[in-house]
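Lipopolysaccharide biosynthesis protein, pasting as requested.
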Amino acid sequence: MNVIKRQAFISTIFSYGGVLIGFISQFLLFPNFLKKEEYGLLMVLLSYMYIMVQLSSLGFNAAGSRFFVHFRNAKQGHRGYLFLGISVGVIGFLICSIGVFFLKDWMIERKGQSDLLATNFYFLLPITFATLLFNLFDNYAKNLYETVTGTFLSQLLQRFLIMISLFLVVFNVLDFSQYIWVWVLAVSFYVIPMIWKASRLDGFSLKPDFSLMTPEFTKEFATYSFLTILTGFSSMIILYIDKIMLADITTLEETGIYSTAAFFGSVMGMSLVALTKASAPIIVDSFAANDLKNIATIYRKSCTTSLIVGCWIFLGIYLNIDNLFEFLPAGYEEGKWVIIILSLGKLFDLATGLNGTILALSPYYRYDTYIMVGLIVLTVFLNWLLIPIYGMNGAAFALALATIYYNAVRYVFLWWKLGMQPFTIDIPKVLLIMVAVSFAVSLIPATEGTKLKTLMDMAYRSTAITLIYGAIIYWSNVSPELNGAMKNLWKVVVRFGRK
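Structure tokens follow.
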């Protein structure tokens, strides 16, 4: 449990450092220095990329995490794990690339905007291959209990490079047709330090070793991989199909506005992502030891901790939402309700904690596949139904409803099959604290006028949120783990102040 606390805490710091950088680039620089359709193009490419990465991996990473206890042997180079993973990834990438080549015309048919997407379409391939390799080596490191480096590289370094590259546009060094080459490099570079870090871990080897791959093990591994292809594909669908369908049904401009607004929903989920990476190998080992009590404890604490952090961020977003749009060009205010809808959906996701990770790593992983197949159908249907009526708000409603669906079903299933019910009285306590703080801070008079006054308003409003919310959370002791982290952070601040 201490490993989870330490790595999750460090990863969360890196994640929110990346959030700050992402805020500067995605909320301030991209909207102000790229055209809406150009920003929309980059987001559509990334959406296609994440779906392609999931398909190209052929389910290897998920299966590798679940069965790594069988591979783990440093003296034997972890029994050819990386050789097998690279081989599967390259084969999957080649299959997907061929599919993309034949489906290109269908994928780029956008109303009056096919030229922009068609011209830059094949940039999809290098960023897909780089991300595919990054995920493999990051997953390998995670299985060896090294989760911090991957988080630093993906959440902090990559976003920093993207932000720095964008200054080439800000200062008119490059136009968009030139900048996209630099953007591809910035998106892809993080794979190099990830491979280097993985090579420094005990037992690193790229040599083939098929001693573990008996017919029985191969069948079990392949079956799990196949099922998790569908599960992972469904996860990518819920995260990225909204942008793809929005661009298809409306315009790249509206997709650009939506992507800017959707950034805040992703921010809220950062703590859960960090917690998932730190917890997954512990959960695998606990299932192997049949230690369901430890898993139930991790599950319960993940719900409370994730919700506390998520509510704090939601308050910062919701109570500053009008201020935020003061720094964007005209038209972006149309995304206000997108932010609110997606943020509320994300709160439900955070409140249910690690349900998906636990189910995927449990003996009942097949049922997660069934749930996620239903998710694909539901998500596509909701987007098809709601986007033509409500535009970007319809895409937000579709994503929020789909999020509630799969979390609710997973929650009920884990309660039914494993007897794990993570909710305690602390969950409604956190929600009540959030509502009370929202009401109290909303009474603070707004400072309007210049952008400097807007910044000042955001600063003291955010400070009030943090101090009031943090004090009540600490006093109520709803999360002893967070209280401990606050004490440790305060000791560091005091020690630094004395120096």
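Note for the archive: The radius of gyration is 23 Å.
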